[in-house]
C-alpha cells in the first residue's frame, strides 16, 4: 500500500515540476514566469519530499522533511516577490496584454521610494497650494 502512495506522490510532484518548466518556457514575461514557477515547484517539491518521508517511514526523516517543506513554503514566495520587485524597479517591462500595473506612478526612481498613491496625491496637492499662494503674491 505504501508503494502505491509513494508512486502517486512522486508522480504528482514530477508532474507539477514539469508543468512549471513548461509554464516557464511559455510565459511571455518575467512576472508571469515567476508566478507560474513559484507555485508549481513549491507544490511539486513538497510532494516529492512527502513521498520520501513515506518511503523511509522513520520519524527523524519525516521531521526533517516537514522542516524542509515548511522552509520552502515560507521562502519560495518571499524570494519570488523580491525577484519580481527587483525586476520591476530595474525597468523590466510587463507583457503588452497585461491588464493592470498597480505600481504605475507609485515608485520614485530617484529616491527608490515605493508608496501608496495617496501619498503622491497629497504631495501634488501641497505643491498646487504653494504654487497658488505664489501666484497670489505676484
What can you tell me about this protein's structure?
By secondary structure, the protein is mostly helical. It has two domains: 1-95, Helix Hairpins (Orthogonal Bundle), CATH 1.10.287; 102-138. Helices cover 75% and strands 3% of the residues. It contains four helices and two strands, in the order H-H-H-E-E-H. It has helices at 2-26, 30-56, 59-89, 117-137, and strands at residues 107-108, 113-114. It has a two-stranded antiparallel ribbon. Strand 1 and strand 2 form a beta hairpin. The protein starts with a helix and ends with a helix.
- Outline: elongated
Q: Roughly what is the average pLDDT, rounded to an integer?
A: 84
**What is the percentage of strand-forming residues?**
under 5%
* Total number of helices: 4
Biggest sheet features = 2 strands, antiparallel
Strand pairing plus helix content: what structural class?
mainly alpha
